[in-house]
Batch of 2 targets.
Target 1
Amino acid sequence: MKILANDGIDPLGKQLLEDAGFSVDTTHIPQEELAERLQAYDAITVRSATKIRAALIDACPNLKLIGRGGVGMDNIDVDYARSKGIAVVNTPAASSLSVAELVFAHLLGGVRFLYDSQRKMPVEGATNFGGLKKAYAKGVELRGKTLGVIGFGRIGRETAKVGLGLGMDVIVSDLFEAPKSLPLVLSGGITVDIPIQQVEIADLLERADFISLHVPFIDKPIIGAAEFAQVKPGVGIVNASRGGVIDELALLEALNSGKVAFAGLDVFDNEPTPRTELLTHPKVSLTPHIGAATNEAQERIGEELANLIIEHLKK
């Protein structure tokens, strides 16, 4: 059987598949050519770039499996594929810690103005060192602050654990009942259960010093103008989930008014061409959708994806 890893796969995953007797092609086929060229393969693996929609599925009746390396599957018409007898699998747990750590890269950079300092030091550092030092003199610590986590799946829980490890108070909001506590593994293998408080989203918005979103793509933003009106003045907000869950125009207004102190964005409405006003905003910390882009996460994703493919196609 032939597998197209259209958005790449970790060498470990590729080796596992080849050892199991599969042929793995890591050549990237452009989206507009997939309808014709995918017919030569039995399965395809993707990340977030390649889209697998109903029309493509109809054009490739040979397809037996679609694998998503990562969590969200909004780039795949999952129900339609399964209605056609095609297996659809993903790797929801493999990248959780990597995404959570990126959230805190944005938060730690945000509270110490690193996003702006990195821009200005190369330009003004030699001529306005004292001025910049004064401009960035009012940083804050995360310890003792309240982190609000919206969406409490695997990534939300890992984010909460990192926050707890830094001494933050964590409150969460989710459509489903959250666990009452989270296990925090300390050095030496000691595990401590830390209580978690679940609240309504309105309560979270009013109480949180920092907000991190971990929700799937939906038809309308979770955070819009009405929600920004409810947040604490000076809140920091991070989105490493999906573009579209924050109203970007409302975010810009909140940043410009000072209601939001800073935003950390790894995802955007119009990927791969994000809104220029966000890319150039002095209060926005930016990354290009790299939440799962660590060596460790990619190895785990490749291994888990390979094992799922082997399990489904070797039946």
Target 2
Amino acid sequence: MIPEEIVRSPSWYESSARNRIAGVLDADTFHEILGPAERVMSPHLELFDLPPAFDDGVIVGRGQLDGKPVAIIAQEGQFMGGTFAEVSGAKIVGLLRAVTAAAGTPDGVSAVLLLLDTGGVRLQEANAGELAVSETVRALLGVRAAGIPVVALVGGRAGAFGGGGIVTACCSHVVISEQGRISVTGPEVIETNKGAEEFDSRDRALVWRVTGGRSRVLLGGADSYVKGDVASFRAAAARSRNAAPPFTLETMAAEQERLEKRLSSYGDCRDTPEIWARAGLADPASVPDIDDDAFLALLSEREIKHDAR
């Protein structure tokens, strides 16, 4: 049953991390671990005269989705860009390790839902943040090796950049909306290192063409495309929890083969309309402009499926 508070389908992009959790899970089933009342905050931000958050911008806990137990992690993109840091990273890694330890027991969960909304590593805690990303990847793969799918939901203001892009690629299934963006290197970083001639970070149309949800699902960087409301993300999370591929060497080999084919087919393209034209889309220039219903119909017609992860 869909929680009553999301009947009006609020925007995922506009919602806070806590509201996204409330909308995805069954009503009144969420139990938070290390919530704001525990006051587990970053010990470093005070040195930079920056205000901390009582949850350090990450919410972790357990709940139910369609009556089945799940673990859930949500980054708050409006606090420090949802960045990975010492405390926030420890909360993520701790929950993932607990899920792996409980696999196959009465305390086990059917899936992990990862609500990514991050610009990557927190610069004020860069070393700890880099470690947090690497430990998150290791813990996440441990969850998958235990037979538990990890479903990423991407559609927030910060997207999934830097370490968040790496973590996304490690998940069993990635759900994205038009507003979602995924990339290891952010637009501003590319521009800083290569110049605006290479990539103009102020060109929003360019940014979304390259890193946005439609490009990612067409290229296989995401597995499911949804409209940008909370109810659609909830429905996709429930579906993909049961559709994730097994974490085996065969799955990894299939994914490697898919990526090699993608590079061979499109590696010399300068912009996504070139890719869509080469892929055979009838009107590649229209992809960013059509509405969600038309884009979902396009995906259905082309039978876009990227099951290898």
